[in-house]
Amino acid sequence: MSDAVQLKKQITLFQGVAIIVGIIIGSGIFVSPVGILMHSKSIGLSMIMWAICGVFNTLCALCYAELGASMPQSGGEYIYIQRAFGDYLSFVVLWINFVLICPVGIAALSLIASLYILQPIFPDCPVPHMAERFIAICLVWLLIAINSRNVKWATRVQVVITASKLVALALIIIIGMVYLGKGDRESFEDTFEDSEYSAGAIALSFYSGFWAYSGWSYLNFLTEELVNPNRNLPLAIMISMITVICVYLVTNIAYLAVLSPSQMLQSTAVAVTFAEHTMGVMQWLMPILIAISVCGTMNGTALSMSRLFFIGAKNNHMPMFMSMIQYKFLTPATSLFIILVLVLCFQSSNDIWFLIEMEGFGFATVLTLVFAGQVYLRYKEPNLPRPIKVPIALPAILGLVSFALVLLTFYQKFIESMLALGLVGVGTLLYIIGNQWTNKPASIQSKITFVNIFFQKLFLVVPQESEKDLNWD
């Protein structure tokens, strides 16, 4: 059994914490932590909103911990919604992740990382577009190659990247505390002056913070590879979220010890502006550390999402070749390759930020379905073993808040939301053709078989050897 072709339990508690922290602390805290401040209009209210957003995301993560412990298969929310609502809605979740959340996110992050890698080389002029695109492509190729070669390599890379970004944050925090000690506290006088308490402003502030904390769910996609998941999954989530909340709050205080609120709002990259004011000739270091931080989010996303598509293919929701494992390296190489292709397509888009706004609609929709499914499962399967069990009111309330975010997205970004619904419609058509149309003509079936065999030979992948069947139908 030790030589069986299957995903191995290689991810420890420490590596799990590194994956979550590495994904959450990405470009947000370094590049654009001004969203909450911009909408709340005051330092005091913005700090409260940072804390509220952190607590909300921690509660969401606890609900995911219950689901992950009771259904310890890789695949995360896809598996949970399949168990609760059946085949079609689980496919919708898979499709949203496949066409929006995963490739758009990695493509945008790769371009951001490339921009900050090249910024010290072109300090007084715009970064050439071709150079930015070339570095972005190289970064994605490298991270996909690492994930395809060895899971331990990918998690070790994540640990190193997480350590690098925490060093960068520590540098910001230490400098900020030194400035505070010197008496630079003008930003903290009358902290609630001009606060904006309207429902719209609070909602927009919440939405900005919600994005900044995103990523806590990704470890649930790797449950099968997590050592002792019933213990380590909730521990990893709690340790990670508490760490991130504390780091975010203290980092914002450090920023404000050096920069005024108006300087923060005028900055496109607060950490770089911070370095320009405090680090002198070493200010070039901050863009590099930002790039490393963003690469951590990219790496964690590729590591986690490839497992989601792998599990979806096992349930006939993706092409069969995506459900196979590289026989030598024991990684879902074909799923990673498809991610690479999609990311390269989105990297060529001239309006990547427009697509990212569509991503927010998709994620809020997924959360609404997950929490609704969690409540429904309490009645549908009351005897399902739940090593971790949260009060049923918790997912019910979180589901209502997530649904409110969906409605808010429709109100604020109607065109993007309609486009996202259009993509779901395309996915529904493909679901009917690929999954429900069982009596396909021999000519079509032979072409599908040819494609599966081609990828199997190209990547030397084989079906997983496991007694587990993830299809409950």
Automatic annotation (TrEMBL):
Pfam hit, one: AA_permease_2
Family of the protein in this entry: Belongs to the amino acid-polyamine-organocation (APC) superfamily. L-type amino acid transporter (LAT) (TC 2.A.3.8) family.
Subcellular location: Cell membrane
InterPro entries in UniProt: AA/rel_permease1, AminoAcid_Transporter
Topology in the lipid bilayer: Multi-pass membrane protein
Annotated protein name in UniProt: Large neutral amino acids transporter small subunit 1
Domain of life: Eukaryota
GO (cellular component) term, any one: plasma membrane
Transmembrane segments: 12-36, 48-67, 88-118, 130-147, 159-180, 200-221, 233-258, 284-309, 329-349, 361-379, 391-411, 417-434
Taxonomic source organism: Biomphalaria pfeifferi
Principal localisation: membrane
Any one GO molecular function term: L-amino acid transmembrane transporter activity
Alphabetized UniProt keyword annotations: Cell membrane, Membrane, Transmembrane, Transmembrane helix, Transport
